[in-house]
Amino acid sequence: MSSPEIQPQTGSSAERYADIALPIAVREVFTYALPPAFAASVQPGMRVWVPLRGRMNIGMVVKVHGEKPAFKTRPVARVLDTEPVLDAGLLSLTEWMQRFYVCGWGEVIQAALPSGLNFSAQTFVRAVPPQEKAVIPLTRQEQRIYDEIREVKRLSWREARQRWSNEERALDSVKKKGLLQLWDEPSLDLQPRMENCWIWANPQREEIARRAVTGRLNKWEEAWLQLLETDPLPATTAALTAAMPEVLTAYTLSRLQKEGVLGREMREVRLPEPAFAYRPEQISALNEEQQQMTQTLIEPLEAGQYAKFLLFGVTGSGKTEVYIHLIKRALELGSGALVLVPEIALTPQTVRRFYLIFGPKIAILHSRLSDRERYEAWQALRRGEKNIVIGARSAVFAPIEKLGVIIMDEEHDTSYYQSDPAPRYHAREVAAMRAYRAGAVLVLGSATPSLVSLVESGRGRSRMLKLSARHAGAVLPEVKVLNLTEYRFAMKGPLAVPLYNAIHEAVGRGEQVILLYNRRGFASFMQCEACGEVPQCPHCSVSLTYHKAQQHLRCHYCGFAASVPGSCRSCGEPGGLKMQGSGTQQVEEELGKLFPKLRVMRMDQDTTSRKNAHDQLLTAFGRGEADILIGTQLVAKGLDFPNVTVVGVVNADTELAFPSYRSNERMYQLLSQVAGRSGRAGKKGIVYLQTKQPDHVSIRHAKNHDYEGFARAELAGRKPLHYPPYARLLQVSFKGKDATYTRRTAEHFTAVMQGAKTGWPVLGPAPDAIERMNDEFRWLTLMKLPPGIGTAQLEKVCGYFWEWFEKNRPEGSSTVRITLSHEML
Questions:
Q1: Distance of alpha carbon 393 from alpha carbon 795, whole angstroms
Q2: How far apart are the first and last CA of the chain?
Q3: SS3 state at 263
Q4: Residues 68-78: pLDDT tens digits?
Q5: Which residue of 187, 264, 420, 499 sits 20 to 30 Å from the alpha carbon of 517, by its own alpha carbon?
Q6: CA-CA distance, 749 to 769, in Å (whole number)?
Q7: Is residue 454 within 8 Å of 310, Cβ to Cβ?
């Protein structure tokens, strides 16, 4: 039902039309008539409020034209912006993405915009006025709910369902009887927060003051001169009286306003800057190798030409210093810069290094920010107040004026790929397209580049630059592989004796230790000793993980949690469930027993779920408040602690359990990254890898810091099987509530793909690795496409599949989702 607000009316014949992209899984845009009231002011990039399928929706104007459609058009109800929230460049980028990633244009725009500027809408409810109410019998419970809703002036449907959560059936019954009216309104809650500020009332304030203020000064004249000297305006009363309490009071400010010196004005409230030091003069000098790399990067920047580089530098080689000098030159040329960092590596330590040199020019964008903080950062960039962005994946859409440099640090990291929801994109590909269109320099940095980027460099699509040595004379740590099959009888809890001794010795020297165990929880699962039953998630086809602190079993896929049953639900054996496997919680507990006098800190998703918890843990460890930091992959990225000399990987084999052709690559990258946390200053570092597969290709090459040897071996295995980077994988996923219908749909669609006779291999259909998740059954089909397939050809192929499938869609077919992925499967 449409919003009850009064809306502009169109005339008999609208002359202007707008093509609107809506945040739905439809690739077409929708054409609406523009009422004369705002036809002249609407521009591409503005949001509008339009009707679709009986509801009101927020959409984005992507084109304004005078071409009258052959069908009857409905009018745009409201225009929500006074100026475009997406400029022409970003709008064009989102259009390319919807074609390349086979999704709706509105879905891409929704992902690009921050909360407060995106397509969020809210449903409201009200009781039908008494005079409109038919004589419908209500139960006493329904009558009470109806009366309470009638008394509330403004109530969202979500609030209503929360308020009457224990009476949902009665609430729904009142709605079904036609006694409640629902309508949608755009969510524009993040409009700028305003405050009343003091401002100068006259621009010639100093000249007026010289003439007016003579002889002995009274209080308000003293305040006037003090304000002239410090010039803190605009500012609030609270800020002024706190800064100068001796001379600035409510009286003196009021008197200055009466004398025509000061005025009042509503100003937008800005969030405070981070509490980091700003010392641009402390920019580090580069060594000779870094200088050569930086100059190579600066040349296309100064020429205003697109260039793509792969900066391959060992951990601790000073890639960040190269980034900083490149950004500094970009600013001198009047350009902006974008620095992309994996979410888990975006620590205060990382931001602090850039803020030291660039200070308030930096905007930070990542998921741990509040909606207000992301909105403020985005608006500051649009206003041109900031021109450097440091952020995670979605920061690739940041509205930077005159973009000159895009840096993608740890470019191999899997978090740069968005798998759900649409658009399912890789930030590396989007960054490359954005840099190409802006004539900017793109730098992909990593100590362990993705094999896709490595091969692209070999094909001439990017230029590789190498930093071969650690910065400031530091050396790479020694890596020792501990074969757990040989240490079965020489273990101290989860630690082999050499690692146990190394921890003792390091802490005795006043140094610190990092331990990696890439598995959350206390135990991997619980199992009945009597019948072998393993408690499963009722919504997913996975076992539940035991979390000791909360004394419950939890699914790490859908979030389902349940208390540990006192007896086996299969055979009834009392106390039969026993812990199997281990997790970070259990390792933390065992370390406490092995080293009772040492301070142990755990860092995983459970301990960092609160806002700023991630930052607080790292800051505390950096101050030396813990001797040992144990954690999942969170401890492997973005950390630089000079006092860490020992790093241990408790079980290096955990990554190999993941069903992917990239398991070896992910394992090597993780081991290499965590090894790089050791010995980053003048102190010698050592790394211990505990494994039952010491001859595995990833471990063998990680021991010798031999990335190139690993890459050669891994690529030799992928090439004959046509896996990326020697193919582009098109994944078609099938999800549905009914197992039979989902399988049948997968078989039917796959038959269409095979019948197309493209000559490209089709694999499947087959159940997903986790066949059921969130009560949905999941099937997959893969097609191996040529690695260089273009956007137009890809669109044509996918369009053909859809066309033939829709002509013969089987009964009860589930929603079919086409997902394009380059390497992240």
A1: 25
A2: 42
A3: strand
A4: 999 999 999 99
A5: 420
A6: 19
A7: yes
Instruction: Annotate 760-816 with DSSP letters as a single string.
Output: S-EEEEEEEEEEEETTEEEEEEEEEE-TT--HHHHHHHHHHHHHHHHHTPPTTPPPE
Which residues pair with residue 732 across a beta bridge? 781, 818
Angle separating helix axes 288-303 and 319-332, nearest 10 degrees:
30
Q: What is the pLDDT of residues 518-548, one digit of tens each?
A: 876 555 678 887 887 888 888 888 888 887 7
Residues 6+ apart with CB under 8 A from 428: 408, 411, 416, 444, 453
On whether the pTM is more than 0.85, the answer is no
> Distance (Å, rounded) from C-alpha 755 to C-alpha 807?
14
Structure tokens, 450: 């993705």
Separation between Cα atoms, residue 469 and residue 643, nearest integer Å: 20
C-beta neighbour count of 11 within 10 angstroms: 11
Structure tokens at 652: 């290096």
- Concatenate the DSSP letters of all residues of 76-89 into one string: P-EE--SS-SS-HH
In whole angstroms, how far apart are CA 532 and each of 185, 440, 484, 569, 676? 53, 59, 26, 11, 41
| 123 phi/psi in degrees, rounded to 5 | -95, 130
**What whole-number distance in Å separates Cα of residue 328 and Cα of residue 500?**
45
Q: How many helices (H) and strands (E) does the chain have?
A: 23, 34
Distance set, CA 210 to CA 123, 207, 214, 303, 471 (Å): 59, 5, 8, 51, 58
Give residue 6's pLDDT: 31
SS (H, E, C) 151-162: HCCCEEHHHHHH
Strands 512-516 and 180-186 turn out to be unpaired
CA distance 286 to 91: 39
Nearest to 653 by CA among 692, 701, 700: 692
The pLDDT tens digits for 152-176 are: 888 989 899 888 988 889 999 998 8
Q: Write down the residue that tokens 């741990």 correspond to.
A: 368
In the 8-state DSSP scheme, what is residue 253? H
Q: Are 388 and 783 in contact (CB under 8 A)?
A: no
**Residues whose CB falls within 8 Å of the CB of residue 756, separated by 6 or more in sequence, listed in order:** 797, 800, 801, 804
Place of tokens 């929706």: 57
Q: Tell whether the torsion through CA atoms of 370, 376, 382 and 388 is positive or negative.
A: negative
Q: Tell how far CA 119 is from the center of its chain.
A: 18
Q: Is 47 helix (H, G, I), strand (E, B) or coil?
A: strand
- Share of the chain residues as helix, strand and coil, in percent rounded to the nearest 5: 35, 25, 40
Can you read off the two tokens belonging to residue 277?
């030091």
| Model confidence pLDDT, tens digit, residues 543-573 | 888 877 777 888 877 788 888 888 888 888 8
DSSP of 706-720: -HHHHHHHHHHHHGG
Q: What is the DSSP string of 182-216?
A: EEEEE--TTSPPEEEEEEES-TTHHHHHHHH--SS
DSSP 8-state symbol, 359: G
759: closest CA among 781, 786, 782? 786
Count of CA atoms in the C-beta half-sphere (13 A) of 508: 6
Quote the CA–CA distance of 351 and 360 in Å, as a whole number. Answer: 12
Determine if the peptide bond prior to 234 is cis (ω within 30°): yes
Q: Are 335 and 301 in contact (CB under 8 A)?
A: yes
Query: Cα 340 to chain center, whole Å?
Result: 11
SS (H, E, C) 98-140: HHHCCCCHHHHHHHHCCCCCCCCEEEEEEECCHHHCCCCCCCH
